[in-house]
Specification:
By secondary structure, this protein is of the alpha/beta class. The protein has 3 domains: 113 residues, 3-Layer(aba) Sandwich (Cobalt-precorrin-4 Transmethylase, domain 1), CATH 3.40.1010.10; 106 residues, Methyltransferase, Cobalt-precorrin-4 Transmethylase, Domain 2 (2-Layer Sandwich), CATH 3.30.950; 46 residues. Helix content is 42%, strand content 17%. A 5-stranded parallel β-sheet has the order 3-2-4-1-5, sandwiched between helices. Strands 6-7-10-8-9 form a 5-stranded mixed β-sheet. The model has no long low-confidence stretch (mean pLDDT 95). The protein binds S-adenosylmethionine. The site of S-adenosylmethionine has 23 residues, from helix 5, strand 7, strand 8 and strand 10.
Length: 286
Amino acid sequence: MNWQKVPLCAGLTFVATPIGSARDITLRALDVLASADVLAAEDTRTLRHLMEIHGVPLADRPMIAYHDHNGADVRPRLIRLMQDGKSLAYASEAGTPAIADPGFTLARDALEQGLPVTSAPGPSAVITALSIAGLPTDRFLFAGFLPPAKGARGQALGELGAVPATLVIYESPKRVHRTLNEMCEAWGNDRQGAVCRELTKKFEEVKRGTLAELADWCAGRSLKGEVVLLVDRDRRQATGEDMESALETAMQTMSVKDSATAVSEALGLPRRKVYQAALAMAKDDQ
Ligand code: SAM
């Protein structure tokens, strides 16, 4: 038996669960699952199965379904249970609750009611992919799933393109090829990226290369399973034209000084050079 009963206070504990391999659960997550007065799950069958694998008895404790389709109805009941002194453990289908999964509004409402919210942390596909993709990890932006509609997708790619960070995107395997092609169109062929598939599972695969190489690799292949896409920040040396156009946009909403800082960071250009260009542009506008 790997778990033990632990005292839990009235309130919410998010329990991270495996993203593939069932043994990727922490001992504390098992303790929380064994000890909470009430369990809630995005998929009650998945959580029951996980508890069975690890020998954690549900006994006569309630397990309540809480997901995107019933959240608004079930949330008040969960809040009431916690207000009545119950400890509640919530697990989403896989990985960390509230990360591209239900949980955010439950945590927000619990906090609004002055209830404690804590976590038994563990796996998440974002961090797992980022840690092995071979791309810089100093700064990253998790963009979740891109919007499916064409216009909104184009706008999202436009916004993400200039972010000076490694981008991490969740994607359906059916759309990976299309998305890589759209990224090539929006951002050029040469940015480095990675396709991380079936992490922690038997057929785990990580393909690294430029966006064009990755798009070629996907062409004609029917990818299966779950996928995280990662893309390095733009490493092209920005031209004077790039700098001026970025400054023009930035100076519509920011001071000269802040615009210079933002643009020099975004384009990797010396701040002094960008600041002088911004001053000259501001003067021309007067
Ligand atoms: N809450 C989860 C987390 O913490 O990662 C994410 C849930 S979200 C609904 C599911 C998406 O996460 C999948 O479509 C895929 O993009 C990514 N994902 C989850 N498990 C994965 C795995 N084993 N390998 C690759 N990607 C995975």
